[in-house]
Structure formats: C-alpha cells, structure tokens
C-alpha cells in the first residue's frame, strides 16, 4: 500500500540556520508517527513545510503519491492535510460550534448565491454542518458548552475543539503539534485513547510531542530530530535504546523529558 505522506530529504534554512536539514520519513494510513527532539530541533519547521506555511528550500512532500511541496496552506488543506498548532489557532470570539463549522467550509460546495439568498440548499447544508460539528465534538469527547465563545473555555477543552475542527475536514492526514502540552494526567489518557480512535477511522497521524510516555505508548514509529537533522527512526523501543538519541536528550534543556523515562 502506498504511503499517505512521503517526506523526502526536506530542508529549510533561515539565514544561516538550517532548521530542517534532510528529513525523510513515510506515514501510512492508520499509522501514528511521532516526531521528537529537543527544543529547537526543527520539528515545527518540518510541520510548517509539510503544510505549506513555509516553503522548503529543498526536498519534496507527497500526499497519496502527489507532490504538494511548496503549495499554499489552503491548497494543502484541501488536498487532505489537517493540523493543530502548538499555540492554539481558534477564533476566540466564535462559539465552540462555529469554530468546528469553520473547519468544514473547505469542502462545503456552497456558492455565494446560496449563502446570500439562503436557498434551501444553503439551509440544508447549514443544518448538515451543525450536525457534523456536534458529531465531531462528541467524537473527541467534548462535554463542555457549545454555544459560548471559545475564549471562555479551559485550555484542555480548547485543545479538544481544535482537534474536532481538524477532524471535521475529514483529512487523510492529521498533524498534531504538541497535543499533550498543558494537559493534566486524565486529559492525556483521553488524548491517547482519542488518537487510537482516529487511527481506526483510517486517518494517518503525525504528532510532535515532548511527553515521552504518550509518544512511546501511542506511536508505531518515532522520528528523532536534533539540530535540524534526523538522528534516528524506528519503533519506540529501538529509539529509546539508540545512543545518539540518549546523547541528544542528555544535552537538553532542564524542562525536557528524557525518552527512556516512563512519564
Ligand atoms: N520563521 C523563522 N525564522 C527564523 N528562524 C526560525 C523560524 N522558524 C524556526 N526558526 C528556527 O529554526 C530552528 C528550529 O525551530 P523549530 O521551532 O522548528 O523547532 P522545534 O523542534 O519545533 O522546537 P520546540 O520543541 O521548542 O517547539 C530554531 O533555531 C528556530 O529559531
């Protein structure tokens, strides 16, 4: 079976800094791949290249065998890539429901005329968007209020809504940038279980994550970056035992976790 995502020798430089310097990995349907590495290793820059927020200096990105390298973020999203952000990017004044609905208009098929004249087609599809939004909020296990502005919610709830919004696009590939950051223990457990249910939908997941307990439990493969370079790739067990990985984390910042911890 061909890969959902193929990243080949991806590179991006900012002035003299090679933020990503030769990253290659594949992700297949129903696979969860983690990208780990110390702060500043280049993980988010890699996500930004894959999703079109940055134009790679070299290398290629293929989605279901088709090159999406350097395309605009909206085109890459429409092609089937959804993402969440390290610092949430929701519309703070829109309601929970409208934030999720906003994620769906990419593939809505409504015309301006439908929207202006509120045609039956428009009303039908608006009702459908609302139903779908509720369905995805249920799917992620969101139990908070749905008609209030998102800015009123606790951080963990906002993160759930961001994942619901990404899922509502029904993409083949979901990129999660530090989904466990700021979550408490039980929220992390629910996230782990959610990742497994997303996998069952047939969606491929790539996650950047510092919580090594979560990474080791949820991922099939782990890609390790340090100073822009890919220093290891393998199963969680292989990566944990890799001397280059242990070395990279020993030179880490105080607040980073070591991959052989079970936290
Ligand atoms: N837009 C940019 N302009 C200049 N330098 C950048 C830009 N984006 C990233 N960098 C640099 O690229 C390097 C990699 O940063 P990046 O944010 O990708 O790392 P990261 O692995 O995601 O780190 P963290 O775990 O802290 O989020 C860093 O040195 C960073 O300062």
UniProtKB/TrEMBL annotation:
One of its GO terms (cellular component) is plasma membrane. PROSITE patterns: ABC_TRANSPORTER_2 (PS50893). The keyword tRNA-binding does not apply. SMART domains: AAA. Residues 5-252 form the ABC transporter domain. Gene3D superfamilies: P-loop containing nucleotide triphosphate hydrolases. InterPro entries: AAA+_ATPase, ABC_AA/LPS_Transport, ABC_transporter-like_ATP-bd, BCA_ABC_TP_C, P-loop_NTPase. It comes from the Bacteria. GO terms for molecular function: ATP binding; ATP hydrolysis activity. Keywords: ATP-binding, Nucleotide-binding, Transport. PANTHER family: CONSERVED COMPONENT OF ABC TRANSPORTER FOR NATURAL AMINO ACIDS, CONSERVED COMPONENT OF ABC TRANSPORTER FOR NATURAL AMINO ACIDS-RELATED. This is Amino acid/amide ABC transporter ATP-binding protein 1, HAAT family. It comes from Mycetocola miduiensis.
